[in-house]
Amino acid sequence: MNAVADKYADQEIGSIFLYTHEAHPGENYLHLTSMEQKFEHARALRDVYGVTRPILLDALDGACHRAYGSMPNMSWIFNRAGMPVYKSDWTDSLSVDYAIRYLLEVGERRSDGQRMAPFNVERMDYRVQDREDFYKGLERNGPKAVREFDEAF
């Protein structure tokens, strides 16, 4: 997502990362009990994954995460009026990039004098599922995270 954010930064399209909570807490990254701990986890996430976008922290009780659907890895795009124009229950950079390109084209078409009316679309996108990389992330959190994930599935 860093590359997508960088690609559109000069077109006044902002991008943030909302840090909600540890999806799979373990011995190394415990369940969050304080904002100080949450800041530490967010800094570690930034460093481990190389996140270059601004990272905002949700409230400890996850109020923002709940308000926007509670899915584990969501992406949203909002227009300048704050209206959601894209919502995905999983973050995939190709899908987000396509949505941004499409929305920019809508702006260009409006500038060319075309009357544009919004409508809703629902489609199925696909993402790469790298199980090995996913388990590396679980292992960073600790053996408990791996064990609990395996038991759940």
Walk me through what this model shows.
The longest helix is centred in the middle third of the chain and has 19 residues, at 93-111. The strands form 2 sheets. Strands 1-2 form a two-stranded parallel ribbon. The chain has a single domain (2-152), classed as Glutaredoxin. The chain is mostly helical and 153 residues long. It is elongated, with a radius of gyration of 18 Å. Strand 1 (17-19), helix 2 (35-49) and strand 2 form a beta-alpha-beta unit. The chain contains 6 helices and 4 strands, in the order H-E-H-E-H-E-E-H-H-H.
Summarize the structure.
The chain is mostly helical and 153 residues long. Helix content is 44%, strand content 10%. It has helices at 2-8, 35-49, 63-67, 93-111, 131-141, 143-152, and strands spanning 17-19, 55-57, 75-78, 84-88.
Give descriptors for this structure.
single chain; about 150 residues; mainly alpha; two-stranded parallel ribbon; two-stranded antiparallel sheet; 6 helices; elongated
* Overall number of domains: 1
Overall mean pLDDT stands at 95
Strand content: 5-15%
Shape, please?
elongated
Q: How many helices? A: 6
The first-to-last residue Cα distance is: 28 Å
CATH class value: Alpha Beta
Category from helices, strands and their pairing: mainly alpha
Order of helices and strands, N to C? HEHEHEEHHH
How many DSSP-defined strands?
4
The residue ranges in which pLDDT falls below 50 over 5 or more consecutive positions are none
CATH fold naming:
Glutaredoxin
Q: If strands are numbered along the chain, what order do they take across the biggest sheet?
A: 1-2
- The CATH architecture classification is 3-Layer(aba) Sandwich
